[in-house]
Amino acid sequence: MQRVAALASPPADQFGKPLLSGHHAAFPLHSDEAFAIRPCRYVLLHCWSADPEGGGQSLLARRERIEALADAAILNGLLSLRLDYPCGPSSTLSAGLMRYNRLEVEGHGQRRQGRLEAQTQEWLDRFDATFAVAAESVTLAPGDLLIVDNHRTLHGRTAFAAGSPRLLKRVRVDAAG
Question: What residue ranges do the domains of the chain occupy?
Fold first, then answer.
């Protein structure tokens, strides 16, 4: 279980990378554990305290909506372009799994090559634009529990005030028996 709150600076994850869920800045659409060979199946977000100013809305982009809104070139890119993750190259859309985390792809590319190729950056920009159009927002109130299928839905959130009392608790669930 992880605490998702307004901290002055993002804490580091187990690999030393900034954990953006522990910070108040906007968090772009992504799937959790995109770096893992087998990412968790579900992400549970339980709201304990909402931002009184209305910030920190959850953003959700379901695979079906992305596929319906993407033009043919983007859909082909999502299916065939293999992005380089620490666990190995992977397309964004494959059978039974949607894997995407731009920050992981960029960070891994910079660590391996010193920079990310311009063509990959262009595709990431195009993907992000498509995901933004497909995204729906959800405002969680105290007591609400949002269950996200991490294999079929990208999630993120809008920014909220640095001093906000907003507090979510996150649990990742691996559904493999």
Answer: 2-173
Higher model confidence: residue 162 or residue 4? 162
In terms of Cα–Cα distance, which of 132, 127, 169, 163 is closest to 51?
Answer: 163
23 DSSP 8-state letter: B
Rounded Cα distance, 34 and 100, in Å = 6
| Class level of CATH domain 2-173 | alpha beta
Return phi, psi of residue 31, to 5°. -110, 145
The token pair that represents 70 in the structure block: 């993407």
What is the arrangement of strands in the sheet containing 2-5, beginning at the earlier edge strand?
A: 2-5, 167-173, 42-49, 145-149
**How many Å apart are CA 49 and CA 163, to the nearest integer?**
13
DSSP 3-state helix, strand, coil percentages of the chain (rounded to 5)? Answer: 25, 30, 40
At residue 115, the pLDDT reads 74
Q: What is the pLDDT of residues 69-100, one digit of tens each?
A: 999 999 999 999 999 988 899 999 998 899 99
Nearest Cα neighbor of 153 from 84, 58, 77, 89 is 58
